[in-house]
Amino acid sequence: QLQLVESGGGLVQPGGSLRLSCAASGFTFDYYTIGWFRQAPGKEREGVSCISSRSISTKYADSVKGRFTISRDNAKNTVYLQMNSLKPEDTAVYYCAADRAMSTTAMCGIKRRDDAPYWGQGTQVTVSS
Asked: What is the average pLDDT across 92-110?
């Protein structure tokens, strides 16, 4: 059974850091593009960062460039999102998703849950003093 499980969320002060993890099981992880998305209450789901299967290509939303870094360890079936210099506007539920065919650009551009076949359950990130 294919599964994605996010972890690492929490409450952090503005300017702080968090590292999110997306652990995968039940499929050949190496073949999949993985994306991080976030959704705040009342807002559209946003592609935050995406990484190709062999880490050759990465994509970032303009709002997080220079602050967030995506990486993956295929030996551990895990993708990470290092988030630095966090701002209150980064507050959202963060999800990871997987797709075998999409490029990082296409993956990060999706808006609906139905646009990617596999999603995790999400982890809450709250940036507040």
From this structure: 96
